[in-house]
Write a structure and sequence with these properties.
8 helices; single chain; alpha+beta; elongated
């Protein structure tokens, strides 16, 4: 990927950006896992958003922040700071469900993020943006975009970041759906195999075999798939 110049809002620049986004979309859909998709999103962000030096994706689930992808350890440290302080643009993006938060100049005191901004300065950051990336049940995610220099993210960069985040969210949702489907098919296969073992070795009917697996899962508070896997490994009837 090559960085393209976004020096002015001309039709030619946005046309090039659209082509780059199309290339990004194809690249993201070609990834084999959710983790690969996340890693590629931050790589594309660091190239396609003018002024971006670093990028990362974090998630907030039940108030806990987790780093899902990052272009460097510095980004992971920034995510950790947001978790420890429970403040920052990306933390707010996901907890308040706002599309965009930004700090234009980290050298200056920031009233809203008075503790977070000085810590980012210590990491060598000059400005940053946070974009809401996805919403799923009680799990929310945001794309972090950082620059080592202050005042790097103008309205054009903010618009480009929002558009990129929107496209990335669609690709990430598709990757998650694919992973969930693959997981469901694998689970179904293991359960079917375990039922076959119980029917053949222990003389159970199909319904009774499934009920045995289900009861063991409920009694031991273990996922049905794990019970089925154990049956496949040992051939023993679960109790």
């Amino acid at each position: 990927m090559s960085r393209w110049p976004m020096v002015q809002e001309s039709g030619d620049v946005w046309e090039k950006f659209a082509v780059s986004l199309a290339d990004m979309a194809r690249d993201l859909l070609a990834q084999e896992s959710v983790k690969d998709t996340l890693d590629r999103i931050v790589e594309h962000a660091s190239v396609l958003i003018n002024g971006c030096d670093e990028a990362g994706i974090l998630t907030v689930r039940r108030g806990e922040v987790s780093a899902l992808a990052a272009t460097s350890d510095v980004v992971r440290m920034a995510d950790r700071i947001q978790q420890d302080l429970r403040e920052g643009p990306c933390f707010d993006a996901v907890t308040e469900r706002q599309q965009l938060y930004a700090i234009e100049d980290l050298r200056r005191p920031h009233e809203k993020w008075s503790r977070f901004a000085p810590e980012l300065r210590k990491l060598g950051m000059g400005s940053m943006m946070g974009f809401l990336l996805f919403t799923e049940d009680d799990e929310l995610g945001a794309l972090n975009v950082y620059s080592h220099q202050p005042n790097m993210f103008d309205e054009t960069a903010q618009r480009a970041g929002w558009i990129l985040a929107s496209h990335a969210a669609v690709a990430l949702s598709a990757a998650r759906t694919h992973q969930q489907l693959a997981h469901a098919l694998e689970t179904r296969h293991e359960i079917g195999e375990a039922m076959g073992i119980l029917m053949e070795r222990h003389g159970l009917s199909e319904d009774n075999a499934f009920n045995v697996l289900k009861k063991a899962s409920q009694d031991h508070n273990i996922k049905l798939r794990e019970i089925a896997r154990k049956v496949c490994e040992t051939g023993e009837r679960p109790t």
